[in-house]
Automatic annotation (TrEMBL):
Residues 1-99 form the PTS EIIB type-2 domain. GO terms for biological process: phosphoenolpyruvate-dependent sugar phosphotransferase system. This is protein-N(pi)-phosphohistidine--D-fructose phosphotransferase. NCBIfam families: FRU (TIGR00829). It comes from Superficieibacter electus.
Length: 104
């Protein structure tokens, strides 16, 4: 599966990047291709492009603040969670999104 993700925390520093790393590592461990966009104090980095959206099976939004561009995920299988969830419960986050895709 190809899963796009957005990570964002209130200060846009530590937890944003910790969540991004956890999403990438857990996704890879579970056999997925993952692209993580971070939204933080430095703006958006590693932005999800239209071609990413066109081939994505699902999106994970791990954020404790409103994210920019949320409307681009309309109609997609989507899991929204706290920015700390991928750090603490990475496998559970991916299991939930895998179930959503499987049972669409």
């Amino acid at each position: 599966m190809f899963i796009v993700c957005v990570a964002a925390c209130p200060t846009g520093v530590a937890h944003t990047y910790m969540a991004a790393e956890a999403l990438e590592m857990t996704g890879k461990k579970r056999g997925h291709e993952v692209k993580v966009e971070t939204q933080g104090s430095m703006g958006a980095e590693n932005e999800i492009l239209d071609e990413d959206l066109a081939r994505a099976d699902a999106v994970i939004i791990a954020a404790d603040v409103a994210i920019s561009g949320k409307e681009r995920f309309a109609g997609m299988v989507k899991l929204e969670c706290s920015v700390s969830d991928p750090i603490k419960f990475g496998d559970a986050v991916f299991e939930a999104v895998e179930q959503e895709v499987a049972h669409g």
